[in-house]
């Protein structure tokens, strides 16, 4: 994904300069193979994409903090492989970036689930920005409609299929693949993480359901209050048999207002073929907002890894708007890419 993002940065370089007055240079790259490589004068993006790393080896760094200090970056793009149950080491990378004065943009869900408040508070303290990739939080882009975009309406809740990984896995099992084969297929497509446990167990969507519940109610819904069940306990035979009977299993996220509280769930649901959510194929996702006056549905058709890369680019562009609000900040960005 990080390579796609770098290609997108190159392709959109003139647009970023013309529309947002953004000028960037790559000053650091981190990978398992190459280690921590930094040069504040700039690295060649095209050379990096073709596997040509800079010399001499003295440019290599020992850890993330030395790397950040040597690169002197304004923005960190974080796309680390991580432990889905803890969010590490991605959280450490983001904290280090904010602490040395760089803005931080993550492509991972783990830091949002496990350390969103901590990272947001640190960003505020350091007067820097912390962004999450917009692709993974599709629903939140549209929550901004409430209440300003849709005045005199009350958001009662939402339901949606927001996870490409589980959607692909369930679809592939319906076609006859085993669970493990379906997971490998999702990884080969670039939609599943190296460790897909957070998605398969529903943890990745818990953060979105929780956030949506907060938007719907204005109250603080804690992560542990989200009722969560993944798709691992669904047998391959059951998935195929219900499909043959005209129904489908989908991992559905819901947030529903109930009196003074909000019930948030992430769990597999058996849907009739007539349900719009049941008809989602491949990486497609959809969300339905239930308002007191009407309902509104939005579908994202088969987004690929480019959509994830675009999420990082969108936040990078949004950073320019923050610069416009604070003219003292320099609009020329030194960008880092982290791909651990």
Give me the secondary-structure topology:
Layout lengths: L1 H10 L1 H8 L2 E9 L3 E9 L1 H5 L10 E2 L2 H8 L3 E4 L11 H10 L3 E4 L3 H16 L4 E3 L5 H6 L11 E7 L2 H11 L4 H10 L8 H4 L2 H15 L9 E2 L7 H9 L2 E12 L2 E12 L12 E7 L3 E6 L4 H21 L6 E8 L1
Helix pairs in contact: 1-13, 5-6, 8-9
Could you please describe the fold and organization of this structure?
- With 340 residues, this protein is of the alpha/beta class.
- Helices cover 39% and strands 25% of the residues.
- The chain contains 13 helices and 13 strands.
- The chain has a seven-stranded mixed β-sheet, sandwiched between helices.
- The longest helix has 21 residues, at 305-325.
- The chain is globular.
- Mean pLDDT is 82; it is low at 213-218 and 324-332.
């Amino acid at each position: 994904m990080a390579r796609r993002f770098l290609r997108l940065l190159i392709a959109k370089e003139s647009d970023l300069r013309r529309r947002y007055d953004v000028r960037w240079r790559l000053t650091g790259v981190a990978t398992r193979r190459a280690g921590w490589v930094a040069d504040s004068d700039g690295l060649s993006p095209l050379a990096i994409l073709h596997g040509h790393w800079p010399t001499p080896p003295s440019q290599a760094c020992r850890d993330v903090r030395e790397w950040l200090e040597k690169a002197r970056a304004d923005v960190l793009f974080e796309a680390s492989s991580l432990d889905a149950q803890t969010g590490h080491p991605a959280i450490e990378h983001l904290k280090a970036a904010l602490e040395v004065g760089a803005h931080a943009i993550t492509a991972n869900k783990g830091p949002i689930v496990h350390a969103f408040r901590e990272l947001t508070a640190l960003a505020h303290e350091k007067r820097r920005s912390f962004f999450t990739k917009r692709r993974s939080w599709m629903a939140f882009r549209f929550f901004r409609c409430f209440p300003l975009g849709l005045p005199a309406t009350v958001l009662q809740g939402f339901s949606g299929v927001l996870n490409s990984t589980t959607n692909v896995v369930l679809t592939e099992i319906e076609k006859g693949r085993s669970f493990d084969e379906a997971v490998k297929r999702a990884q080969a497509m670039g939609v599943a993480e190296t460790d897909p446990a957070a998605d398969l167990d529903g943890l990745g969507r818990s953060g979105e359901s929780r956030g949506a519940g907060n938007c719907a109610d204005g109250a603080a819904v804690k992560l542990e209050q989200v009722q969560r069940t993944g798709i691992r306990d669904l047998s391959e035979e059951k998935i195929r048999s219900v499909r043959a009977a005209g129904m489908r299993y989908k991992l559905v996220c819901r947030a529903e207002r109930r009196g003074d509280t909000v019930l948030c769930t992430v769990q597999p649901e058996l849907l009739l073929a007539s349900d719009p959510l049941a008809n989602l194929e491949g990486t497609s996702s959809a969300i339905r907002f239930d308002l007191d006056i009407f309902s509104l549905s939005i579908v994202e058709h088969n987004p690929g890894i480019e959509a994830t890369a675009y999420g990082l680019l969108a936040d990078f562009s949004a950073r320019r708007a923050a610069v416009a609000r604070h003219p003292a900040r320099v609009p020329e960005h030194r960008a880092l890419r982290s791909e651990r």
